[in-house]
Amino acid sequence: MAIDSAGSARKSDRYRPGTQDRLADIMSERFDRPPTEPRRRFLFVAEPRSGGSFLAECLRATGTAGVPYEYLNPRLIEAHAARFGLPGPPSMERYFGHLLRHRTTPNGVFVLKALVDQVIPYLNRRGYLGQLLGSCDRIFVMYRGDKLAQAVSYYKASVSDAWNSQDRFEGYDDPARFPFDPIAISQFLRALFAFERQLDGVVAWARRRGTPVEIFTYEKIDADLESEWARLLRFLELPSVPAASLGTTLERQRDAVSDALIARYLAEIRGLGPAAPPPAEKRR
Q: Cα–Cα distance between 66 and 62 in angstroms, integer?
């Protein structure tokens, strides 16, 4: 299965109207803020399907951490072009010129959330995006340890075009009806290990530059949201806000379909059996 930088299948018929409407809404004036010049820029880099959208929603809900969305996602760039009636994708200077001015909170904080493969091509580059990434004051990253659950989540989202809990479509919540493709899941699994190595590269890049960087994981946030959330706010030097008071709308997406796909995948792998050992005389 071909995967683009937004993590979705390239075929346009995979895009669901509901998801398209949600993405258009993200880039609408509803999420714009009064014109403000950013004084502090933060970069949030995550692996796909690692809980980054939830953490970004928590940051948005504070009102002091910018309006972090996945602005390098091609579908958001397309939505921006459609909003302003542009004939094609805008230049990055024009695009981020708008975002930096209108997606910065009144305290001067701008946060760019991005998937790791969206930023890797621009690190150490001289172009506009390279300079923008290099100008960030602090960087925080998000890993996920359970790669199989992550790969199944990635596969589910690609098949259904449901990228968070707000994107729900009839029929995709039934384990008996959801398509099972172990080869596609394996491809996503392989891609995720590559993304993890790329995220290691982002951390190393930040440390070489002397930019403060903090590491978070899906598992630790899931186990102890309050303390991990407090750690993030301290790192960003933002006012303390209890996580329980944020009223986030996103929910965990692992469900009966996820569990069924994981079980079928493991059964498929185990059903192959161990490889036959070579003859004894060849194992010297």
A: 9
- Give DSSP secondary structure letters for 26-48: HTSGGG--S----SEEEEEEE-T
Q: How far apart are CA 140 and CA 105, in angstroms?
A: 19
Please give the order of strands across the beta sheet that includes 138-143. 109-115, 40-46, 138-143, 213-217
Q: What is the pLDDT of residues 175-217, one digit of tens each?
A: 888 889 999 999 999 999 999 999 999 999 999 999 999 999 9
Distance CA 12, CA 32 (A): 28
Read off the DSSP letter of residue 70. B
Residue ranges of alpha helices (H) inside 210-251 are: 218-223, 225-236
| Cα 222 to Cα 241: distance, rounded to the nearest angstrom | 18
Residues in CB range of 232: below 8 A, 6 or more apart: 55, 140, 214, 216
All structural domains of the chain:
12-238+250-271 (3.40.50.300)
- Bin 237: left if φ > 0, else alpha if -120 < ψ < 50, else beta: left
pLDDT digits (tens, 9 = 90+) for 233-253: 999 999 999 988 887 665 566
∠ CA 96-129-43, nearest 5°, is 80
pTM comes to 0.84
Three-state SS for 68? coil
Query: Which DSSP state fits 72?
Result: T
CA geometry: angle 65, 70, 73, nearest 5 deg: 160
Mind listing the pLDDT tens digit for each residue in 71-95? 999 999 999 999 999 999 999 999 9
Note the pLDDT of residue 157: 86
Residue 8's Cβ-side half-sphere holds a number of Cα atoms within 13 Å equal to 19
Q: Give the whole-angstrom CA distance, residue 110 versus residue 64.
A: 9
